[in-house]
Amino acid sequence: MAGAFWGCGSPSGKPGAGGIAISFDDHFIKEWYELRPLFQKYNAKVTFFITCPDSLKAEEAAMLKQLEKEGHEIGFHGTVHAKSTELMTAGGPKGYIEAELEPGLRHMNAAGFKPTSYAHPGGNHNGRVDSVLLAKGFTTLRDVAISRRKYKGFQLYAWPPRWMNAIYYIFDGEQKVDALMIDYDEVTEEEIAEAILEAKENGTALMIFGHEPLYSEPKNGKYGFNVSFLAAVLREADKQKLKFYTMSELPKSNN
Ligand SMILES: [Zn+2]
Fold first, then answer.
1. Contact 87/63 with Cβ under 8 angstroms?
2. Hey, what CATH topology would domain 11-250 get?
3. Per mean pLDDT, which range of 6-10, 20-24, 36-40 is the poorest?
4. Residue 83: is it exposed, middle or buried by C-beta count within 10 angstroms (0-12/13-18/19+)?
């Protein structure tokens, strides 16, 4: 996430492939499950990145199975949700794999899931971490993009999502991708509608993600998005006839 992240030109993808890839992180399984009527209304397919699968209750595993059956993807988001670069520095690839990847994957496998996409906890990673994840068989690695950065109350920058090249998938087979965070009410409905139109016109896929579904304005510091905002996103995507992609489908949709 450096300066090269931003650009003024419109990324171009594949004509007619315009779409949207929505994902959700952490462990709000019951809360996500309650969004099913909304997903069904727009025939939306999304990706759920699960962390701490060692605490996966049978009831939660059943909900994830049902979501998978309905076309959604179940991805992995780490065993302990740690800073992967620190685990890598402390224990090398072996230590990282044994702490963050293998125990959680064993739980996921035991519950009947074989995740092929991975979301970096806290957006923390480096080249070594990525190499290990790709070697472990993950085909999509998702990072975090935030449109407004605030530091001690001061706004450092505020780029409209339509200017953030990194959040549009251009169907080039790339396995390392960024998604725009929709928590905190930081992106307006007008901005997301523009971003959706951009994806439609350029044949790219807009990538967005959030954490906990909330039924009011997210309060400061809470990792959550307003469900009414998600509803607006789905409504607009449907209106523009965007395709819904799960995260593992993106690199596979390369022509
Ligand atoms: Zn997370």
1. no
2. TIM Barrel (3.20.20)
3. 6-10
4. middle
pTM: 0.92
pLDDT digits (tens, 9 = 90+) for 154-189: 666 667 777 788 999 999 999 999 999 998 767 889
DSSP string, 207-251: EEEESEEESSPPPTT--EEEHHHHHHHHHHHHHTTPEE--TTHHH
Q: How many residues does the chain have?
A: 255
Ion ligand 1, residue ranges at CB < 5 A:
25-26, 121
In 3D space, the residue among 21, 53, 47, 20 whose CA is nearest the CA of residue 32 turns out to be: 47
Q: What is the distance in A from the centroid of ligand 1 to the CA of 9?
A: 31
Ligand 1: centre distance to CA 122 (Å): 6
Tokens of 137: 């068989």
The structural domains of the chain, with segments of one domain joined by +, span 11-250
Give the three-state DSSP class for 6.
Answer: coil
Residue 3 has pLDDT above 50, yes or no: no
**Amino acid, single-letter form, for residue 251:** P
